[in-house]
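Our collaborator T.R. sent over the components below with a one-line note: 'Predict the complex.' Nothing else. No constraints on interfaces, no templates requested, no preferences about which chain binds where. So this is a plain run: every listed entity goes in together, and whatever single assembly comes back becomes the starting point for the next discussion.
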Amino acid sequence: MTPELLLLAVSVAGYTAGALAALAFRGMVARALVAAGALGGSLATLALGAWCLATGATLAFAAPWLPLTGLALRADGLSAFFLIVVGLAAAAASLYGFGYSAQYDGRYSLRLLGAMFNVLLLSLTVQVLADNALTFLVTWEVMSLSAYFLVLVEHDQPGTVRAANWYLAVTHAGFAALIAAFLVLAAGDMTGSFAAMRSVGLTPGTRNVVFLLALVGFGTKAGVIPLHVWLPMAHPVAPSHVSAVLSGVVIKMGVYGLMRVALDLLGGGPAWWGGIVLGLGAVSALLGVLYALMEHDLKRLLAYHSVENMGIILLGVGAGLMFQSYGLPALATLGFIAGLYHTLNHACFKGLLFLGAGSVQYATHTRNMEDLGGLITRMPRTSACFLIGAAAISALPPLNGFASEWLVFQTLMGGALVPRPEVAIGMPIAVAMLALSSGLAVACFVKAFGITFLALPRSTEAARAREVPASMQVGMLLLVGMCVALGVTPFLVVPALSRALAGLGRIPMTPIGFSLHLPFSVAGVTGEMSPLLLAVGLALLGVLTAIVLRLLADRRLRVGDTWGCGRIGQTPRMEYTATAFAEPLRRVFAELYRPTEDLSIDFHPKSKYFVRSIAYRSEVQPWFERLLYTPFLSALRGAAARVRQVQAGSLHLYLAYLTIALLVLLVVARWSR
Amino acid sequence: MTADVMMAAAQGLLALLLAPGVVGLVRWLKARLQNRRGAPPWQPYRELRKLFQKEVVVSRHASWLFHLAPFVVFASTLAVAVIVPVLAVPLLVDRIGDLLVVVYLLLLGTFFLALAGLDPGSAFGGMGASREVTVAALAEPTLAVAIFALARSAGTTNLGEIAARTMADPLSAASPGHLLAFAALFIVMLAETGRLPIDNPATHLELTMIHEAMVLEYSGRYLALIEWAAALKLLVFFILLGNLFVPWGLARALTLEAVMTAVGVFAVKVVVLAVAVAVLETRVAKLRLFRVPELLSASFVLALLAVTSSFLLR
Amino acid sequence: MLLFLKILKAGMVTEPLAPGEPDVIEVAREVETKARRLLGRAVAIREVDAGSCNGCEIEITGLTGPVYDSERFGIHFVASPRHADLLLVTGPVTRNMEIPLLKTYEATPDPKIVVAVGDCARTCGEFRGSYAVVGSVDAVIPVDVFVSGCPPEPTDILRGILIALDRLPKRKGRRDDP
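Returned assembly:
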């Protein structure tokens, strides 16, 4: 048995053991065994991915004898990379889940949570290894369904059932598109391996159809605008470690699928493929962060940021597809590398942020930022971890978000090499949208961290918060370490990614080798930077400043009141609120948000000059549901109502249907002889 | 290589030491334009020296972030000062960071300063933080597209390289792309450093403050670090405007006379830009806060025109 | 353009510091030499209106104008007592402003100087005995220099500040120098 198969077997065994333990045991034993199984499985997944990537080994396993569907697995570079993503996020989430699920004991079903969590991780692992259409689709569906059940764990909270229903509906719509795409791609042979699919020659029209279907199908999973509506509904209501896996890994399967189909199976296509993906990415990035700014539910804010970051990933992938069609292989490789790097980084920092938000929810029982505050002194380690996550997602050097965004910028700037006017106009606009979304992300995370953790607590729950259990802290610390490590070592990550992409056979990719600096003379725009030296330099300068200050400056420090123009006391009501913080940006983008405002003033009955109370309510409703989905759904309902008339309820009518159908079949059979 | 490293360190130190003087020069020029004598241009040095000897008073609601932020702001701005081409190009340090790194390092400082504004729980700090990140976010697209314009014509995003290639190709410096990018960057400089017409650095009315409101809680040595970092940020933008668009005078080789010439030319450029800023600040009035996005959109359009013109005129 | 022509035509309007009346300024406490030396050349002033009629404020506002130009002495006004070295207090301390004045004093980092401006700050002036007034400024916070007048001339206020910093030119008739 090869090492790869062994690791895969260990991984599968771990997840299965975890799932069974959830069903067989109860209480803390169940939680511990679930976490152990998931952790073991995910570490094995991580090891498998790392091993395959490092040694270039490919795993091949086929079990056509499995009933109904058979199983065919193969690991190439792309799969290995995504195995790493899965393993990393899952390991941290599993550790965290041990402590976090303690609050579900007795209230919600720990069995469902534990079992479905392991099933989800198992399906994710097998998903990226799938080598034929049927395996791919089956594992995709298992993944979607287990995620659905996980979203439903806290079933009596308001909005959970609605969120789960939306999620199920949209994901199945996408699934239908995927089935269609694979049917066309495989020319009907669903159990043929991907290798066979690569060699099938399709007409350009068919290839376009497959690409568009795949884009819709994988786009619903990835959460690109306008197919993203389920994301901000479903991710907040799921348990936090599940949200971390959902945002960190499950939506990445959309990226994996898109790259697998468009890049590997179809082998690239005309420039407009890349252009569409690029456009969708840019729009998702901007709208995602714009809506995140208006949220004061901590987890919904993070969910919208997932939409934004998926947009950034698609910017890289789309640019790669586009440059490939224009015959710039080096730049195309850079684009794909940037997209994949951001995938890994996003899994790390979004996972970290969701785990942090989960810790906050665990300690204060609320997700509403307007009720939080002052947690930095009450939950110091969680705050520090969340701060690192916030800095990473805001693309601040020298953390990992910056490294991958830098690469995406360099890829887009490479568009200067393409002498076509649409690219010359489009690229600067894409660069501008990326920069704007990145700046707005900074604003959003200053708000998220500042209002949630800093200043005084705005409610008694926040005032009584305490630090979370050790297992939760360790899960977060693991991801913190990865954020920092991935940020300062792009010189290790980029060559590894380049190797991963080289495995994608048919496309000419330029391998990028080891260099202490980030790229590298890619033909076109060159740019160099070294996050490691930057980090060292920053630390050195900071320490130097502190030392010089210690020696030369006065050392006195006195504690006093916050300066408030001499007012008598300070209460939490005097602090800034999340809504107030985002208000300037809400005004600037008012045309987009179209906020509704509702002001009601309660006057004293005797005189209009004395006001008893003022109630102000303002809402920003994303208009996607109103403009896109509601008309579509009502049209669907109208059509369904009309079709329902066929089922009139009369037995005679049904008998008549049967007779007519029989006659038609006889005629057709006679005719086609 | 050691000569390069020492040169980079010397550059950073020179920028650090000159920065308060530049702010003082702008203030002195504004005073003279207001028909009064004003403080001498070296007044900010006296202020910094005094601040370093003053006591620090910290709010009891502030956390460790409040104490950390001045160091992060100072270190990140100083790192930028080391990377930008002050005297000589190209240096090895040029390869550590390019224009994007510079932009994001400045954003790192803004991030921590905004958090420090929220930390003590005062409404002023929150308001200042909210406005500061709004202006910073809206200035980002202009910066990115202006970088794109520069990188496109020079073929690289590394600062020293851009300066070197512009020096080798004098005509490109006069191209419409460059001029438009200069105008766009000038407006962004006013926004990022809190100068009129976006923000009045000398105002006492909290409702009109953007940058100042965030630092109302700081005192003593922390305030000194933040003020110094703000002055350094202004000087960094002067360096970017001067040495990227008009790079002649930069030393190509590390010889004594080249470096001396570079110092002299650098001083001239800084003085010219200081005069420009002082005259502009005297001429214009502060914009309403919600007119600032319009100004920044105008600068964005200029940057976009810069990029498209450099494409069309190839 | 018209603006710059006007600027050129007006020229330098700052007047040299006039000698002023000798007994308008009273030094209540000697400021520590260390504080004087530290703050001598760069002073940040926070103005506190502890209930004044704003007559003194108008004179203080004139200080930053081109004629009196306090900035040439290194004096500038700041927005927060945390940034300040010198508190310029006006007005009889009303009951509502007693605690804010105290809090402003506590919020100012050491070393600090307090200059009380106007007759009201020294003796409650017109408002002495009013139910709304607590007392003169030195009943609430320790004052270093009093500047009398109702309102005092800007020259006197400036001289009061400079005397507190021990920066007043000693020789009569000598042009001020920063």
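Summary for T.R.: Chain A touches chain B through 84 residues (CB under 8 Å).
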